[in-house]
Amino acid sequence: MSESEKVYLDLCQYILQNGVKKEDRTGTGTISTFGAQMRFDLEKGFPLLTTKKIPFRLIASELLWFIKGDTNIRYLLKHNNNIWNEWAFKAWIESDVYTGPDMTNFGLRAQNDQEFHLLYQEQMELFKKRILDDADFAAQFGELGNVYGKQWRDWTASNGQSIDQLKEVIETIKTNPSSRRLIVSAWNPEDLPNMALPPCHTMFQFYVTEGRLSCQLYQRSGDVFLGIPFNIASYALLTHLIAHECGLKAGEFIHTLGDAHIYLNHLEQVEEQLNRTPKALPELLLNKNVTSVFDFEMEDINIENYLPHPAIKAPVAV
Questions:
Q1: Would residue 246 show up in a list of annotated catalytic residues for this protein?
Q2: Average pLDDT over residues 189-207
Q3: pTM
């Protein structure tokens, strides 16, 4: 068994055995633990889980969206990426200009009412089409506020100046790799009210030693079944991209979690995944002709030899 996959499966098992039931913002309920850490050696394979199929193209397009400093779902939808739709849709249906059918509490209602589920899907498709076709509508209702991309690339200082945290940290890796200040923060208390969702992955730090670039992420809250596999692969990819630009090898990705939880409506899915045997991890291939993190496009990033078990579907708690 891949050690990278084992540490994730061990975390799932630990939460099932030791977690406590806890209420949450979504009303779904969780089994939760506080404080966990997983370590992934990126030289031993790219940590894209094999015990269920993980859509790598969604992970890559979301990360490029962050790197570009974008905060509007229009870019994601153009890449057939729907992972942020619910938060933008929620703002739309709660706005004064929305005149469609009642979508209140659509996340839970769609799980329990098939008729409503079909109505919700219809409204979501109309919303997505309008985001793609109507630039003015997208500017107003595709916007998620000052989420990750804004904080990474355009943190607004108290004097009004813009700080490009990601660009600065890459430059420091190149010029002062021994620095202990190689940090990017997405947690901006002043901007929290202006975010569709306060950042779950709040800050990350890089560490350079013996020609290897490692990254540690602190994540305040983690949906272990649906979200965490995305986060693992996303920050592993980010580490590879920055190592590539800086002429370093990718070292470790260390994932430190605050509230690590499994939603109560994901328990059967987690058990199914735990009963599967992991396979060999895939290989990440980057276009060697692209020299800057900020120039990568989807066609420059590929995964080879990924042969996972089938996907396991589960509802997203919004």
A1: no
A2: 94
A3: 0.94
